[in-house]
Design brief:
- The complex is a heterodimer.
- Chain A is mostly helical.
- Chain A contains seven helices and no strands.
- The two termini of chain A are about 20 Å apart.
- The relative contact order of chain A is 0.18.
- In chain B, helix 1 crosses helix 8.
- The chains are: A mainly alpha, B mainly alpha.
- Chains A and B meet through helix 2, helix 6 and helix 7 of A and helix 2, helix 3, helix 7 and helix 8 of B.
Chain lengths: ~140, ~150
Amino acid sequence: MVLSEAERALVRALWNKMGDNVGVYTTEALERTFASFPSTKTYFANFNLKPGSTQIKDHGKKVAVALTQAVNHLDDLPGALSVLSELHAYKLRVDPVNFQLLSHSLLVTLARHYPGDFSPTMHVSLDKFLSHVNSALVSKYR
Amino acid sequence: MVHLTAGEKSLVASTWSKVNVDAVGGEVLGRLLVVYPWTQRFFDSFGDLSSASAIMGNAKVQAHGKKVLKSFAEGLNHLDDLKGAFAQLSELHCDKLHVDPENFRLLGNVLMCVMARHLGADFTPEAQAVCQKVVAGVATALAHKYH
């Protein structure tokens, strides 16, 4: 389930287009995840989870930095995400199903903001990319 | 069975009213076949599914997608008894079509992306949340008669 060169090009192109706004969309994706899948809020019991919360924005920025890092290292996602893999495995221990829920909400967010770019081939490229990121994140779980 | 408040039912209705069911059904099924190619296993008789553009342009995909989405739309009139509303279709999908219910979940998620694409700002997090409840309810109802 490797990304083809064409799929990588599509993901990079969208990331370039988003520029400095990746954090805006990852924040919206988090808000959508909390709204649609309330069980995901259990990992943020100490956060203010109202839409617009600074804590969600800050967390959205962290997710944006990680995803941008991933886009810039599509040839070696496990390597690029190694530190995050360990963090999630040994400290955070977020159940893997939740990364799929966030990924889905990110796809919805990008479809909402970039309808013209969200072609079927962009849709599958993004879904594959996020699926690879999620695999890397849970790679050290057991 | 999906538990929606009156406010949520109203939000479902107003969100759904913005969807052009005839136009969007083909896109939803097409995207399912592109994004999750293994779902093509049910459509050997549909002809050319060899590329994204072939799939999206395929007349049988368009027609079947329209049929599926019309059926989903009809379900929205029975939110208090989705299991009853989809009982016969559930038996059909199990006994004749042999469709893994996981596919209903995948289709529901593709529908969410297509609604986001078409509705833009109207597909708020709140609108998505109620629609996710509905697609989850429909998927459960369609799986209910499986044995």
